[in-house]
Design a protein that fits this description.
- The complex is a heterodimer of chains A (442) and B (252).
- Chain A has helices spanning 11-23, 31-47, 62-65, 78-83, 125-130, 134-139, 149-157, 389-396, 402-418, 424-440; strands at 97-102, 105-106, 120-124, 162-166, 176-181, 188-197, 202-210, 218-227, 232-240, 246-255, 260-267, 272-281, 287-296, 301-310, 316-325, 330-339, 347-356, 362-371, 377-385.
- With 442 residues, chain A is α/β, with parallel strands linked by helices.
- In chain A, the strands form two sheets. Chain A has a ten-stranded mixed β-sheet with strand order 2-1-5-7-9-11-13-15-17-19, covered by helices on one side.
- The longest helix of chain A has 17 residues, at 31-47.
- Chain B is an alpha/beta fold.
- Helices cover 38% and strands 29% of the residues of chain B.
- In chain B, strands 6-9-10-3-11-12 form a six-stranded mixed β-sheet, with helices on both faces.
- The radius of gyration of chain B is 18 Å and the shape is globular.
- The chains are: A alpha/beta (442), B alpha/beta (252).
- At the A-B interface, helix 8 and helix 9 of A face helix 2, strand 7 and helix 3 of B.
Chain lengths: 442, 252
């Protein structure tokens, strides 16, 4: 029998529909953008929030995890902005050009726009949309997968973000830091950024997301990254949201020939986090490092989902992901590498490791290799386990107390991923964050 | 007072008894060699003393400096001055040797109520000791024992011992897997540390190491008990005649 079911909308789904209906009239952008929003919202309306029967969301049942949809955050007032003054402290003393977003809105007075290096241009997405910026018209939504519900919701409701362009050949010495801060408001923000890096340019881009503990705010963030040939980009995303936050984050990148592309995802905050990456290697001979570290405790749920699409020949990608799980936390890693027929001589190696510090923690790991070319080197490895008792004993036999021995081993475990970051200062800052996290463990 | 007193020690792994009533007394400054065939319980003794999980004493007593060793966690035993040089030193990826040495040394000092060493003091000390053992600076920067040869790992054990300055060092088959040159370097390292206050238990299958680290007392361990004790000549005797008679004796 062919039964057709009408699914009942969840409270969150209904609330999102109301939010969109109310907001669509005053969200930034011209008619074309408005049409793009409607089309995107339609993708969501047809599918609803993704749930466990959707393969890509099998371990992160957003329909169940997202009980309600928060109203859109209002524009930050002076008090909100004051809360954001110390944001970004997890970067330590790394010198950056900071662009601050409070509750999803760009705040120029908390941002450093002085003396932009030649070849660097920065606009807020809200301004770019309002002004009909041609770069936005050309690039927005071109690489983020339109059928993905998280992306669709972002496109429908995007309010602000950064639009950054680096001219050909320019080297931007100071890393750009997109610093997203949520305030006490239990609200939702939809931020969208667009970065285009012209041929031969070099830049480091750091995204950080943070907010207060105890506030159940929601963030849907997305970054579209266009990397032209011979460009070199290092991207680091730090998800250090508050303890009750829900964050769905997307990175979509199109990478041209002979580029260097490194991305690192560092997740340690949030109640529910989904960090998804869609990376297209469109040009030949690009070298990529795709890494991440996730530190979880309590009842945290964090999902890293990676889709690497090798389209052109001769690219090399190295994937290293480490997850440390304490308490009753749940870590998910899904890594899918597709090597298309034309992507001969692809060299892709993926390693994912979970370190379980508690019997009640759960790690799900789903590596997938799909290879259509016949002359490639691809491999993946996955491990999950507890701390090595033999190593712990060796350290203790040298006088190191149990807790300190464990901390040393956890640091080493996570460090293997962090050491792939080229920026020494940032490596140190992240290791300091790991040490600080370890101190919060009992 | 004896530094180490083992009285009628019974211990085993997973319910299988391996040490069956072992008695041993080591006084300050003495070098004891424990020899015996494979399976006689040599490594078990080392692990029981160091406190490895799974190596549980079932009866008997071990006093270290007058204190019950089994009341102490492995790190407390180390801080109290017990050192085990591992037969198979472990590789610890991601932990730099310098970090490891410094963490260990300062953890022990902290437990003993001594101030932590400053970075320059520590580096000076490590360089001094490492130099004598022929350990390159490059090795110290690498992760602990990762990619080290067998000889380098054993030298690294001696380096740790020299830095931590234990009261009693138990060397568990430190000679295994070493060529003669490496053996000499390791033995010289040990001999330099020998002092009236510091004792050694040298566990070995072969007499060869004892040409370089000369024992005051030699014990033969068989089936979990010390079946014969003598002077350094006993080692030569064993080398010439093998362990056959002791294995039979223990069975009988």
């Amino acid at each position: 029998m062919n039964a057709s079911l009408t699914t009942v909308k969840t409270a969150a789904e209904s609330a999102l529909a109301n939010t969109f209906a109310e907001a669509r009239g005053h969200l930034p952008g011209d008619r074309e953008v408005a049409a793009q929003r409607v089309a995107a919202f339609d993708v969501f309306a047809k599918q609803g929030l993704p749930h466990r029967r959707i393969e890509e969301w099998k371990y992160t049942d957003l329909r169940a995890l997202m009980r309600e949809a928060k109203p859109l955050a209002s524009l930050p007032d002076a008090a909100d902005k004051a809360q954001a003054k110390t944001a970004g402290s997890m970067l330590g003393d790394v010198e950056v050009r900071r662009l601050t977003f409070v509750d999803g809105a760009f705040v120029p007075e908390l941002s450093d726009l002085k003396g932009l290096e030649s070849g660097l241009s920065i606009t807020s997405l809200a301004d770019a949309l309002a002004g009909g910026d041609p770069a936005v018209v050309t690039h927005l939504g071109k690489i983020a997968p339109a059928g993905d519900v998280a992306v669709a919701l972002n496109t429908a409701l995007m309010g602000d973000g950064a639009v950054i362009h680096i001219d050909g050949g320019a080297t931007i010495a100071r890393p750009l830091h997109l610093c997203f801060v949520a305030t006490q408001k239990p609200a939702a923000t939809f931020v969208r950024s667009l970065v285009t890096v012209a041929p031969g340019a070099r830049v480091m881009l750091i995204e950080s997301h943070e907010g207060p503990a105890g506030s159940d705010y929601q963030v849907n963030s997305a970054l579209e990254l266009f990397v032209a040939e011979r460009a070199h980009i290092d991207h680091v995303k730090i998800i250090a949201d508050g303890s009750d936050a829900l964050h769905v984050s997307t990175l979509a990148a199109a990478i041209a020939a002979r580029a260097r592309f490194n991305t690192f995802g560092f997740t340690m905050g949030g109640a529910v986090v989904r960090n998804q990456m869609f990376l297209n290697f469109d040009g030949e001979d690009t070298v990529a490092g795709i890494r991440g570290a996730t530190l979880l405790g309590g009842r945290q749920h964090a999902d890293t989902t990676l889709f690497v699409n090798h389209i052109a020949r001769g690219c090399q990608s190295r994937e290293v992901f480490k997850t440390v799980l304490g308490g009753e936390s749940h870590g998910v890693f899904q890594g899918r590498i597709v090597v298309r027929r034309g992507a001969q001589k692809t060299d892709a190696k993926m390693m994912t490791q979970a370190l379980l510090l508690s019997d009640r923690a759960e790690a799900d790991n789903k590596p997938e290799l799909e290879i259509y070319a016949d002359d490639v080197q691809c491999g993946h490895g996955a491990t999950a386990g507890a701390l090595d008792d033999e190593l712990k004993f060796y350290l203790m036999a040298r006088g190191i107390p149990a807790a300190e021995a464990e901390a040393l081993l956890i640091r080493a475990f996570v460090g293997e991923a962090i050491e792939g970051i080229e920026h020494a200062g940032l490596r140190e800052a992240l290791m300091d964050s790991v040490v600080a996290w370890l101190k919060t463990r009992k | 007072m004896a530094l180490l007193e083992i009285k009628n020690l019974h211990a085993g792994i997973e319910g299988k008894e391996i040490l069956r009533g072992l008695d041993l007394t080591v006084n300050a400054g003495e070098v004891h060699a424990i020899m015996g065939p494979n399976g006689s319980g040599k490594s078990t003794l080392a692990y029981v003393l160091a406190g490895k999980a799974g190596y549980e004493p079932t009866s008997g007593e071990v006093l270290f400096n007058g204190k019950n060793l089994f009341d102490m966690e492995p790190d407390e035993r180390a801080a109290a001055g017990l050192f085990l040089a591992f037969q198979y030193p472990l590789e610890i990826p991601g932990v730099a040797t310098m970090t490891f040495l410094r963490t260990a040394l300062n953890a022990q000092r902290k437990r003993r109520g001594d101030p932590e060493l400053s970075t320059p003091e520590f580096i000076k000390k490590v360089r001094e000791v490492a130099g004598k053992l022929g350990i390159e600076q490059d090795m110290l920067r690498r992760a602990v024992n990762v990619g080290f040869s067998g000889g380098e790992k054993k030298r690294n054990e001696v380096l740790q011992m020299a830095l931590l300055e234990p009261r009693l060092a138990v060397l568990d088959e430190t000679d295994s897997g070493l060529d003669i040159d490496a053996l000499k370097i390791v033995a010289e390292g040990v001999n330099r540390l020998h002092s009236p206050g510091r004792s050694f238990i040298v566990i070995t299958h072969y007499q060869r190491l004892l040409n370089y680290i000369v024992p005051d007392v030699v014990h033969v361990l068989s089936k979990g008990r010390i079946v014969k004790t003598g002077g350094k000549d006993l080692a030569l005797e064993l080398e010439a005649r093998g362990y056959v008679e002791y294995q039979e004796e223990a069975v009988a």
